[in-house]
Amino acid sequence: MSPSRSRGRLGALPLLAFYAVVFGVPAVALVVGAFTVQGRPSLANVSQSLQGGYLTAMIGSVRLSAVVAVLGAVLGTFLAYAVVTSRFTLLRESVLTASGVLANFGGVPLAFFWIATLGNSGVVSGLIGLPSGSLYTFWGLVIVYLYFSIPLMVLSMAPALDGLRPQWREAAANNGATAWHYWRFVALPVLAPAMLGGVVLLFGGAFSAYATANAMVGTVVPLVTLKIASALTGDVLIGHENIALALSLDMVVVAGLVMAIYLPLQRRTSRWLQ
Questions:
Q1: What is the pLDDT of residues 169-192, one digit of tens each?
Q2: pTM of the prediction?
Q3: CB under 8 Å to 138, separation ≥6 — which residues?
Q4: Phi, psi of 40, rounded to the nearest 5 degrees
Q5: Distance CA 116, CA 58 (A)
């Protein structure tokens, strides 16, 4: 091993130690706690987290995340294409800048924004005659989540759309291909990894969101993040004190599956668009 490579690895030790403390210790505590009942190893917490209301909440979170991911991906891709193909540089820069801001706008401020606008006493809901309570439902939560999911998809798809070379369309046209043939056999196969990666990214963002749903719907819409918060605040049976850790472990497993799909897609996209 060369001295420079050895010094480089030594220089990474502080960062590795930081990750071990910040991520490793909580991860170990989470796994140990999830499989511990009253100080003894047990599968009771994990088993309980996959039954009854907890299972309903997990299914609700997956369903909500899937709907938000698909709708956000479709709408975000069309918006990204409109922006990328626009001749107005100012429009492109404005939309991308706004997308960068809105993609990180969430939590209680986002919930307050929608409640003040389309809530029971909202400014707009009274003008358009929106039925009372429409915002505090599953589909109301979907609309709110799309507020930050669509901009996130725009940011994900814009670089991929920029990577479509004009020469590909010209070559397809020279060979007698129609616009449909170009998109079906050239553009969509190239964009598919980025689009699927964006879907996975939106799914993960919606799946892990908590503050917005808690401020808006409370327990009206069953979500696993709300169940974890409820368990942490004392809504738990004796002997199942670590049920929140088991639910968190379930979320980690789902997140791991999401990342296992997302990372290969991103690598494939980077190869196509180099």
A1: 888 888 887 888 888 888 888 888
A2: 0.82
A3: 60, 64, 221
A4: -120, 145
A5: 29
